């Protein structure tokens, strides 16, 4: 059994970042053409594009602020002109900020998380899903977080945004399912990436994970590729934790 995404086009927001670039490589390795979104790091995006093309697929980079409707619409126009209409969306980009307590977290951070978690997913759906409806097939995959279940101190702005994202995507799954479009969420734990290797600072975290280790960026990309494929064509509306059991969604 293999994951074959030949003939599909994936758009990965934040595709030049730590998790995003591995998703792009993995999807390209499965045969999907790739649109690599970036906000500021053009050089990193072009490197990912080159890596995807080396795997034999078509790839372009596309710049934009995913919290602005005009930017997302411009992204669609560029991608359609160069590659066609994406039928796989991976909504991965998110605004970074300093975490502190509810009592001291700047209000701008809550607004930023709302825009990059909730409005990001709304805009991507409004701009790109209509073409999926016309084609009768599509995948929307939102990158959530284990934090949405942990609710630990200093996580409030992040959790607020990601829980809002969860609501939007669950409703979207019900609204577009009849068109054979699945909508799911991948929720990473504290992952190891190329830029952020494991270290002793994570000892306490690892001790609380049933597998007693941290996962890596490839673990996230593997699930994204699976959910993008026809192997997952009857899975929708799900929040799937990739955390080694650190958080366990319940029934």
UniProtKB/TrEMBL annotation:
InterPro entries named among the record's database cross-references: NAD(P)-bd_dom_sf, SDR_fam
Keywords: Oxidoreductase
Keyword Amino-acid biosynthesis applies: no
Family indicated by similarity: Belongs to the short-chain dehydrogenases/reductases (SDR) family.
Pfam families recorded: adh_short_C2 (PF13561)
Protein's name in the database: SDR family oxidoreductase
Top-rank lineage group of the source organism: Bacteria
């Amino acid at each position: 059994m293999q994951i074959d995404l030949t003939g599909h086009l994936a758009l990965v927001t934040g595709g030049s970042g730590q998790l995003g670039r591995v998703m792009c490589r993995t999807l390209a390795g499965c045969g999907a053409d790739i649109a690599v979104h970036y906000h500021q790091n053009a050089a990193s995006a072009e490197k990912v594009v080159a890596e995807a093309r080396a795997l034999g697929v078509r790839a372009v980079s596309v710049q934009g602020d995913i919290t602005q409707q005009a930017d997302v619409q411009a992204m669609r126009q560029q991608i359609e002109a160069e590659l066609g209409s994406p039928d796989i969306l991976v909504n991965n980009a998110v605004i970074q900020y300093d975490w502190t307590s509810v009592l001291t977290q700047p209000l701008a951070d809550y607004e930023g998380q709302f825009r990059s978690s909730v409005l990001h997913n709304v805009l991507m759906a409004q701009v790109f899903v209509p073409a999926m409806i016309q084609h009768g097939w599509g995948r929307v995959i939102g990158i959530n977080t284990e934090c949405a279940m942990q609710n630990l101190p200093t996580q409030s702005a992040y959790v607020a945004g990601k829980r809002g994202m969860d609501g939007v995507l669950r409703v979207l799954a019900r609204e577009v399912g009849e068109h054979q479009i699945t909508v799911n969420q991948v929720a990473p734990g504290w992952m190891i990436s190329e830029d952020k290797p494991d270290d002793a600072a994570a000892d306490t975290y690892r001790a609380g994970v049933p597998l007693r280790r941290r996962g890596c960026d490839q673990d996230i990309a593997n699930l994204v590729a699976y959910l993008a494929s026809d192997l997952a064509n009857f899975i929708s509306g799900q929040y799937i934790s990739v955390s080694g059991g650190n958080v366990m969604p319940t029934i």
